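Researcher: Re-running this chain for the archive, since the previous output was lost when a drive failed. Same request as before.
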Amino acid sequence: MFKNIDTDGSGTITVEEFRDGLARLGSKQTEAEIKQLMDAADVDKIGTIDYIEFRTNIEHQCRFEREDKIANACQVFNKDGSRFITRDELRQVMTKYGMGDEATIDEAMEGLDTDELIFFFKILITLLCLLLFILHMISLNGVG
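Model: Regenerated structure tokens:
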């Protein structure tokens, strides 16, 4: 995820990369809000976020809200409470949120086994943690 935001491959995230990364996630933060979020994550105050700062902030946020928020979010996928995402549950969510037509969804699910579904679930949790981190930084800074 860090590499996706660090588009120039410098090993640090600039405010511009952070803004663009948030926009790709659908965030509509103002420039001032983005600056506040960046300042909160930039522990060494050099104007960029390095991998350690990024990971530390995400891990902190995930621990901070993991149990309630992640459990509630995971219920979107895990309707039967099994703690695994079944093919049917994945299909239902993809269809509900317009993540492709039937043929696209079939293609995406083709060849997935249980381990790949669990891996997919871990990716979703990571993305959720990033979103929770952003929301937490907004609440800490009184932004929004």
